[in-house]
Design brief:
The chain is built from seven helices and nine strands. It is α/β, with parallel strands linked by helices and about 200 residues long.
Length: about 200
């Protein structure tokens, strides 16, 4: 959609990803991304990311947005992907370190973020990281929200990690979208209850 917009927020332009579009009074379309906001809001309840080592798995728009927001808040971010060239390009864009997913065990982290689609859809029984690599005491966030309990999170919890599911991040970024579109404070509790209800209904 970026090519069809007249204005793009700087962070969205850097990430090459837009998930929110607002029609301005003069008819121009302005794009932004709230994925990074969702990541920060979800993690903030567990720890201050400043000075923390964070590994982000993935190199797409959501991974870039999360990595950029984390970097801006003082985290030491490393972006890992299966394709080394994609990881390098994404890391270059957002200003962080990069590496190969195959070498994940060699990187330190206090926070681990899955920004890949692994764990959803046809990949629902898969995980982007071997269970043996999870580290007790770390915080693990999965951007996947369908299913709500992914193998990635289940294995992280079993290893003694603090987990953050994708629905929490989805809600946090949706709150930012709502406020961007309407200019009023989002009804967070109503949104949370509705999201939880839909997730439960979907799991049945």
């Amino acid at each position: 959609i970026v090519a069809h917009l007249q204005e793009v927020e700087e962070s969205a332009a850097v990430c090459g990803s837009v998930n929110t579009v607002v029609a301005q009074p003069d008819g121009t379309l302005r794009g932004s991304t709230t994925d990074g906001t969702g990541v920060i809001a979800s993690l903030r309840k567990r720890l201050d990311v400043k000075g923390r080592a964070v590994v982000v798995l993935g190199a797409g728009g959501a991974a870039r947005s999360g990595a950029l927001s984390l970097t801006k808040r003082g985290a030491a971010v490393t972006l890992l992907a299966r394709d080394a060239k994609q990881a390098a390009a994404a890391a270059r864009a957002v200003g962080c370190r990069h590496g190969s997913m195959a070498d994940a065990g060699a990187h330190p982290w206090d926070v681990l973020v899955n920004a890949t689609p692994v764990g959803s859809g046809a990949l629902a029984e898969e995980t982007p990281l071997p269970a043996a690599l999870h580290r007790p005491g770390t915080v693990v966030l999965d951007m996947v929200y369908d299913p709500l309990e992914t193998r990635f999170l289940r294995e992280a919890q079993e290893a003694g990690c603090t987990i953050v599911d994708g629905l929490e991040m989805l809600l946090a970024q949706a709150v930012a979208q709502f406020e961007t579109w309407t200019g009023v404070e989002a009804p967070v509790e109503v949104m949370r209850q509705t999201a939880a209800f839909l997730a439960q209904a979907q799991a049945r």
